[in-house]
Description:
The chain is of the alpha+beta class and 1189 residues long.
Amino acid sequence: MASISCYLTSQQEKKLNNNNSMSSASCLHSEKDFNETIGYYTDQSRWEEDQKTLKQYANLKLSASGLPVFGKVEKLLQIANPLLGAYKEHSRLLSDYLCPVDQRIQQFINSYCGDLLPQFGDKVRLPSNCLELDRHGLGRLLSLPGNGDSFESEFVCSYRIKQGVLHNPVNDRRTTQGSFHIACEGLPIPADKKAIPKLVWANLLSHALNPPDSLKLLPYTSSQEEKAKCWVALLLRPLICPEVPGVCEEKRMECRFFAPASLVSNLDFVESIFGNAGMSYYTVNDSGLDVRNWSGHTGCVILAPHLLKLTKKELGLPHVSEATERQKKDGMCWEKESDLYNEGEAFKITARTNSGTILTIIADNYFGYCKKEVKSQITYACNLFGNCEEEHSGGAIAFPAYYLGDTFRLLDFHIDEGYTFKKMYETNKHLMTLVDKEGYAIDNTYSDVYYVPEDAYFTLHGQNISWTHPNTKEKVSIHLRPGFTYILPSGYRVEMIHEKSGWSLIGTTAIGTYCHKPCTVSGGGKSEISKSIADAIITGPVVVADFLRDLEKVDELISKDYSDRFKDKSTKDTRKVLSSERSLGSVVKLLTPSDLYTDDYNNWLKSLPPYIRQLVFIVKNLYREDWGGNWKDKFNVDLVNGTFGNSLKYKDENLVNHFMRIGFYNNSWRTFELRKDFTPAFKIQTEDDMTASVVVPTKKLEGKVRERYQNNVSVKISRNTEHRLFQRPDDCVIRGYDKRCELDLSTPNTFICNFEPLNHQQIKEIVDDSIHFHQYTKPMREFLEEYAKQGVPSFCVASSNTRVVNNQRSKNPRYLQNAEDLINPRKYYLADVATRLHQEIQKDGCVIHPIDGLISGRRNNPESKGVPPLCCHSPIHYLELPELFMEYISSLTGKSASTTATTIGSEGALTKGPFCPILSITELNTVLVSLLLTGHAGFVSSAGVLGPNYRVDHDVSLLIPELWSRMKPEERDPKYLIENDYLEKVDDFEYQGKTVLGSRLGYRITQRFVKSFFGRLFTNPGTIFTDDMLQLEKQDLKAFADSINTIVESHKTVASDYFIDGSVEGACPPLKAVLHCMVHGHYNGKSINDPEIRQMFTKEHLLESDWYKERLQTRQKVLINHWKKLEDYLEQFEKNNHYKDLITILDIEGRRKYVQEQLAIVSKENYWQELVGFLGTDPYLYKDVKQTL
């Protein structure tokens, strides 16, 4: 039985999943949970009411802790005074008592200090009388004076603003270079981290736990005479492994934050992202009793920016004359007694072992460091526990959507036949209420979601939906309403949407494609994969040159016989252009040059005016069979000055072309017309930065989802770990450009950072500057106008005004953006309902969305001053596993707006190397197992530039989900793409007398790929990418060769670290071969192209290998140890008389029985064989590895 806490147990989540909730918000089950755990409110009046209660609660907590309260003593405090007095007396008697999570951390500190403990004693003891932030909002309240709107300290300037809170730390950005220090002893230390002697770590910990009084000043009471000075503490329970019903339980670690009170804003920040797990002293919140969902791992973070003032000498580092080579390299020695530790720059220092506890001290208060530390600790827990991953990734599920015209019936297209309303209703009656008279159903959660029979006919003429009643067989109809969603028995959805071209029917398929973007470098498009492309689409009128003559020309093309167009005369295709047997996509191919066609036919196609081809596509898209041959009567133009105009109309409404930008050339936009039946995919965001994922055997799934993935040994399930995203709106300074940012910054209760606090007068001046003010979007204008009238509180933020640092506007504006599933739960609900219906999932079954496509992102840049070229990648590449892991190991990134780097660099294995607290080889081993089991092919998309001449920014990244979702699974198979010339191999070549290893780039897309698959989005796909955008050597051979050489040299440099720190010995055999080839060019005399090495990267090799067997056996040992520890903990709990009354309430006997059952299962001798298809656990983490430091 899981512990009672502020997040849901697995059983409660199952209940929600049965109601089709797939979002990360599903871990909250009531409005109260949203409010208290993550501070999300849908009712502003409820928030205002809660603020009043919070103020009373804050004073109660302050008084109970023996601290000065804010303001006058309230009546509630007077009434509660006797109780509070008794509580204080109990607290004094138990002053040395630590809550369960703190006990675990203190035990780790004592054990890690070892023989140093007598020297430090209470100096390394955790604070026991902290002010506990046991619900969201308390930290935010305490971060500002109770009677003021600003607080300033040495490290942060905080402001109460109309949008919520603005916290500007002393530094607006930080670098990761040289900032990660790891204490010696415990797990091996990566070569790119600084190794710290244990004595120095203990000294730093001692100073961290004994900060100056000024740092402990609580902002809430800072403006009054009696000021509270204390520690504040917070408990988090971040996700490390998502639940897969019937296969594995959800797993969470526990993570404890301590901060001197003046830094309480940092705790507000992290709880807003990960959620508040409640009062750590409450027994029901003890992770040790959460036998189903606790992974057994504990993290601790202590904020201590005052450590920057300590010298190397006083911390115990040696003089340079006595230092080791590693210490000299890491700067862990001193020449002058005044030398500051880490040169006075921000750092974090971590101590960790394979026992399951990790402790980090952060000598800074930059907010991003706190988030990244939770990420680091999740990574630590995932790898020690095994079977799951923390991934640096973005992701989205894309459901292809199509323009359906003004009438539609799904049955006419012979799609999803076999699904009936009767069967759908019987299976899902718990979700809907039947309207028996008309024979349709209304959703129980959203009243604007209707379920209609399979023969439903939609028409905009009279706004009507009609069908045959499932029971009476009578013809019935209902009104077609905009804003409503109509779902057919197969899950196919139809909606009435208004666009610039007027009203139309939009259809959305029931099955989405999950596009996963792992190992994506800064600026590589991690976030863009989940963004809608709607804002990137521009429109223009459909223009004719001569109305009558152009229609005659179109009629000629429609009537033409195309049967003799093929070179291969045995190929026959006699379908007419307007035949129902020919789709719009088929007509696009028909009128697009191809190497399958004769030269004469291709030349004829090239002679056609492009706008005439577009008119054919328009007619084809709108054509209905009941028109017969009278299609020309449906179109017209206005008469202008007595002559025919040029803007084409259909049903008296102007027709509109839709265009999308794909890059620039000489600073001009390259725009391309979208297909007439194209509309942006229905896309839901699933990941953005921090993802917990698990790999499970396909055979353990049920129903149609098992059928769909039956060719894979396993599938990967992922889930976002964050409720809010720490967004960096680079373009917010351009008024009106970043619409989402301006909307978010017009929302109350928002956490904002690195913007300028503007007073009432400054906002009035912005509003009065009418010309520039109207460049903002409507939400921002209305918000600022409202503040200009009210002037309360004292400050406000305008999206275009970032803070000023060193006389320059900050280029690192930040804010916490509510995850999409919080602000638009209906969207996620629809995605789950559609999938449930299509997969015919039974009432007790759960919807899961395995990952379908893996497309990492890379950042390219042309050569510039001090920056070598990194621009040899085409729009999309496919890399076989050896080359893919060279890419993953190095994670090279070009210069971008989102990085502080001034040159090309490596972000480390899987792009989170700077934050990884363990050897990266452990994560790489796991990723290889994941790819081999799931069969995911490694594609890479480009951002930045294509060669030195074409800038594309994120235009390609945005298109990936649209493209992938419109390709069949077999079409995304590299084997199919290579065999059919959709991909071409990049070969090694000679340049200036030297061999350039072009093969490191793998395969790249061809013009045939673009014409075939981009042709599902665009009307003229052959023009999207010129030959020199696909084959970049045609732009500039020198830049192409130099870029590849830079990559190869960087591969060698990065891989060398694995030899320096010895972690190459922890590499599984395939990756050991890759590392050797990256550094030495060969492995045991064999190149990376040797068939024997390539064979190591196969599913068959994995399943038969001893190293995979060892992973599974290690996993079994980890589980045995895990369940034994929980059994011992429950036994000790039962023996403690203080908990006698809780034994029954918490069903300790039931929990113990569950643990014993699990222990019996995993203790079977051959249990590891049942784990085939899972990731296992990397054994290198549990080996006694000796390092020379």
